[in-house]
Amino acid sequence: MSNLLELKNVSKVYQRGIISPHANIALRDISLTLKEDEPTIMTVAGESGSGKTTLAMLLLGFITATTGEILYRGKNIAGLTGKDRLAYRREVQAVFQDPFAVFNPFYTVDHLLTVPIKRFKLARNKTDARNRMEEALTAVGLRPEDILGRFPHQLSGGQRQRINVARALLLKPRLLIADEPVSMVDASLRANILETLRNLQRDHGVSIIYITHDLTTAYHIAKSIIVLYRGGVMEAGDVDAVIKSPQHPYTQLLVDSIPWPNLNQRWGEHPIIAREADSVSTGCPFRARCPKAMEICKTRPPLFQINPSQAAACYLHDKQPEIVAERLSELLPA
Amino acid sequence: MMMDTKAAGAQAGSRNATAAYDAASAKSVLQVKGLEVTYYTDLGRAKALDDVSFTLGAGEKLGMVGESGSGKSTMALAMMRMIKPPGRIEGGSVIVDGTDLMALDDDTMRRARLDKIAYIPQGAMNSLNPVTRIGAQMVDAIKSHMPREGRSAIMDRCMHALRSVDLDSGVFRMYAHELSGGMKQRVCIAIGILLEPKVIIADEPTSALDVVTQRQVMETIDRVQDQINAAVILIGHDMGLMAQFVDKVAVMYAGRLVEVASVREMFTDPKHPYSQALISSLPNLDNKGVFQGIPGLAPSLLRLPSGCAFHPRCPHAEELQRTVRPESVTLAGGRTVTCHLYAEEGQRHV
Ligand SMILES: Nc1ncnc2c1ncn2[C@@H]1O[C@H](COP(=O)(O)OP(=O)(O)OP(=O)(O)O)[C@@H](O)[C@H]1O
Ligand SMILES: Nc1ncnc2c1ncn2[C@@H]1O[C@H](COP(=O)(O)OP(=O)(O)OP(=O)(O)O)[C@@H](O)[C@H]1O
Ligand code: SF4
Ligand code: SF4
Ligand SMILES: [Mg+2]
Ligand SMILES: [Mg+2]
What we know:
Strand order of the largest sheet of chain B: 6-7-8-3-9-10-12-11-13
Strand content of chain A: 15-25%
Radius of gyration of chain B: 21 Å
Helix content of chain B: 25-40%
Distance between the termini of chain B: 55 Å
Number of strands of chain B: 13
CATH architecture of chain B: 3-Layer(aba) Sandwich
Strand order of the largest sheet of chain A: 6-7-8-3-9-10-12-11-13
Oligomer: heterodimer
Largest sheet of chain B: 9 strands, mixed
Radius of gyration of chain A: 21 Å
Shape of chain A: globular
CATH class of chain B: Alpha Beta
Shape of chain B: globular
CATH superfamily of chain B: P-loop containing nucleotide triphosphate hydrolases
Distance between the termini of chain A: 14 Å
Largest interface: A-B, 66 and 70 residues
Bound molecules: adenosine-5'-triphosphate, iron/sulfur cluster, magnesium ion
Helix content of chain A: 25-40%
Largest sheet of chain A: 9 strands, mixed
């Protein structure tokens, strides 16, 4: 069984200035595997600044890892050339986080969609190209006759976001990295778009990495989840287990902070302890905010395996067997 | 810096449907009447706002929801008189505390922004100036409205605003890039409340934030609102946030307000077929993998369906709905709905 994508101990450090001592570790020792013949949907969740977009940028080859390597179909993406490189560019697609930033204001929506069709030779002729474009736009709830020919500034926030999703649908990649793809659309459309994404996985064998802070939609669409905090994995496993029974104090805070559309379930029983201005650099990264912090937490906790499909990096579970980061993927259901 | 926001959360619990209506009828700080906006595009005329009317009392919180592209941001911009060509405000009034903003000259309107009505735009935290300190941006905002205000009074105002959004006074000397997303968002709120406006409009203030930061920002808005007793309009898609935060919910569909009701009425007994579909599409943890979106596409503003704009997607559509446009009616308890199904039961507006 071959691997579609493999991350081996990947870290990313942003240097502040050239010789500054304050390096910012945006991602710390991440190992992950996605199998070629088991398309899955994996959620990456975590607060603002936890390293989610950094992970997406690494997978897309837009930035390079400081240490560790990323393999696509067994080859390091940093060294891809010629045909392999074109295949990777075509097969790995993204929906970017900020729909206000990615559009070139001088081109109409059509341009955004026709360029990849031409570049990757997706259509047999003009009519075919037009049909594909219309099909993709309709799938995200847009009317082609209204949208084609318009400039980005003439569209609402959610309309721009959906054009990005339409572009990804058009390309039918092998791996889709979707960074907050539905944050600006309403619940009903959100349901429609997520269903489209799930069908893409189920019927077309597309693996999806769904980056979000919305745990409710993560629960509905994903199979597995990885919870990041300051660049490190706090908890990972089966999405049902992690969201219904979170074991790491940080995941517990996240789940507790979900605003439910239910008047009888009030928001946030637990008080929020604000994150400290300058971070604790050693030990458990969540220590400063953790209501259960102990003396031992001053050293960095390893991952403990809580059950066959759930692990948490927290000393509250140190009676459980440790699991090395490289084997984390084995817990994640496909 | 450690802080406990529980107290703020607890005092936010004063939400009561009947009290909300009483407050509204007793004294409304905001009256929007017949607001209309059209975008004149190359493809034709798009009526983005059609006869939008509602009122809000001091201390009330209104949630504004509706499909993407239904006109929510347009409404906010129109209320601020910030619609740019090819858009045009074609009618209506926005009365804040007795003054009709639409009747003001440009200069007076400029002062009314921030002073009477403040707008925190979609993606606000990206709008802070990267090269000026936060403090300088705050001082500028005050000076442009109160040219005669003394230095120490200005400083007092800034510090008070920062404190009320739970930010350290040190933030005054910092630059935007030194702050996290949630902190920047709170700075934008602080600027919004500097002059203690009567009405605050926040356009998706937390859609880019994680749930924990989201909770902090909403608790902040809540507390600030309590202090200055402003009316708040929260635009957004997150029905969870609405359920936890607002008193009233207004539902926009194709540029019209199709329903306005208390948050409890909206979540337990929505009347308009679109609101009903919206409420039943909400996710919970019991029906994993069931996606219940509303079938069909949002209508084109360039070619609105005849009669009721929702009729092509409505399970109750009959001949009447396809030809005759429904008018807004008031139902028992003061809620309003724009749908033929309630024409008998409701009271016509004039
Ligand atoms: N180009 C850069 N230079 C320096 N630091 C950066 C850069 N890009 C990101 N960072 C830092 O790396 C960390 C992770 O950022 P990242 O954008 O991956 O977060 P995120 O999880 O996507 O957050 P959000 O939910 O706000 O989008 C942050 O502390 C950020 O400040
Ligand atoms: N400058 C413009 N020129 C032409 N049409 C516009 C312009 N700005 C907005 N529109 C159109 O007006 C309609 C309403 O847009 P608006 O931004 O108010 O929607 P919204 O309800 O805020 O949506 P979202 O939830 O996606 O932000 C949309 O159909 C949009 O395409
Ligand atoms: S390791 Fe310690 S500080 Fe970290 S989450 Fe667990 S109990 Fe809290
Ligand atoms: S007026 Fe008729 S078509 Fe429109 S929402 Fe009501 S029942 Fe449906
Ligand atoms: Mg990001
Ligand atoms: Mg908008």
